[in-house]
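From the pipeline queue, job 12 of 40. The input is one protein chain; the requested action is below.

Action: predict structure.
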Amino acid sequence: MPAEPKTSRGRASRERIVESAAELVAERGVHATSLDDVRAATGASKSQLYHYFADRDELVELAVGLRCQQALAGIAQLLGGVTTFAQLQKALRQMLKGYEEHPTGCPIGTLASEVVEQNEAARLHTVAAFAAWEGLIAQALNRMRDRGELRADAQPDVLATSMLASLEGGLLLSQIRRDAKSLRVALEAALSYVANFKTMD
């Protein structure tokens, strides 16, 4: 694996290539993004690519990692301030609205399906991203329990796994069917399950 560039210019060039590769992967998918595509998008030469990256797999790994970070930033923005059930409803319905406006499926799930058997390092980025997403949900549920909105016997980690699984299933079905109804149903089902653990108003 090539060493990290020592100069700020070299690091900036490498980051620019990774960012362009991440954009291409988001638009076209991993399999449809070639090194020639990255070269055309960045103006980099073949020698530059192999100077900064050992091979295509390493570039894909870094591009997938960046896309996961970008997706998580948006999810964190939605869930980071959630402390009530009403806020959780609002956050998930905003997620639905975002899908309806840009029906491209789950960015993390789509990447995971492409790299799971092809690029182990990239797969691990998606594993970590799902864990982080699950953690963000669990943290929101913990805050709800701490303030008395959920019963003491509620298990935020278990509820978070259930909610994430429901969201991913809804996203996949909606993407395949080209209809947001499946995601809408999955979101409402996830909220209904959490509502079972609400304290009495």
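Job complete. The chain has a mean pLDDT of 94.
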